[in-house]
Amino acid sequence: MESYGSLLKNAREEKGLDILSVERDTAITMQYIEAMEEENVDVFPGEAYFIGFLHNYAEFLGLNGDNIVSLYKNKKLQESPIPDGLFPKHRPIWIIPLVILLILAGLSGIVFGTIKLVAFIKTMQAQKAQTVEEMQRFHTYTLSEKPLQKRIYKGDHIIIPQNEGNVDLVVANTLGLLSIETPAGMQTIDLSEEVELDIDNDTVPDMIVYVSDVSNTDSDRGAEVRMLLKVGGMVLGATNLDEIQSADELPKNANQYEILTDNRAYPFTINASFRASCLFRYRIDRKEPIEDYYSSGDVVTITSNNGTRLWMANGNVVKIQIIADGRSYELEAVKAGNVHTEDIKWIKMSDGRYRLIAVEID
Known about the structure:
The chain is an alpha+beta fold and 362 residues long. It contains 7 helices and 21 strands. Strand 20 (340-348) and strand 21 form a beta hairpin. Helix 4 (47-60) crosses helix 5 (65-79) and helix 4 (47-60) crosses helix 7 (110-137). The chain starts with a helix and ends with a strand.
């Protein structure tokens, strides 16, 4: 019989993929990938989990997930011990009449027993389907230098890279507050609370978690969070707060458009899509400007920590979309034929909060 573990490993190697790249692309941890290729089911918390991951991994490698799962089940069946009584044993002749008598006496209960058996099978199938469905709902996210803005659910995994290896955090509760199981113990974050978490008990914060939405009545809604990684006391992917302009410093007559307000500033993305030809220039976080000539259908994606200045020869042909805090915002259209310049940036308000705005530049 073909080994499903060998098929997985050979398919991965034929594609030139190492386990680390597969872990990044599939969100399946290295431990589970190696266990599937080595056919080690005991690593998984349950068979339903193993089958779900096995099917998804096979499909990712371009294999038939159903066939791979069938190979696993066939191997399991072959390795199972032969049940007692499978082969007939010689019995005394007088037992045969007794057996016939018992069969006749039990005919009246066959129908009832069949109904009970069918009901039991349906119950087991429903429980198995529910287990697989719950398993497939679980996701694994790896925190990197980019902020993680996601709605997470109970059972989801958050992977934190460390020098000694990855640390696996598990979402334990999303009802009323967010609870995360870490090597240092259970840690909780309330709604609208921002907390620095020390996940390995070394007194040094490893990440920042902010909860923007969590239900008090329905845990299935999960929790909307923003997570940032801290390394050596520095927040990766965060804005430079010292470079953020105060709202009082803006010109009084500045034509500005508010995109969003939050209790901290963080990186955002600008998508500029072109409906016609246009000369377009942009400058990210005070770096050297980039200029090019774009045609209809072109799209430019810009990621900024603090702010970006945009310059376009004909603002009417450029559609500007802002992605921040996991949401999408579209800027108002510019009049046709106008050369247009604007800043999209964070400013600090007098109450200590931050506002992402678009400001027209004369």
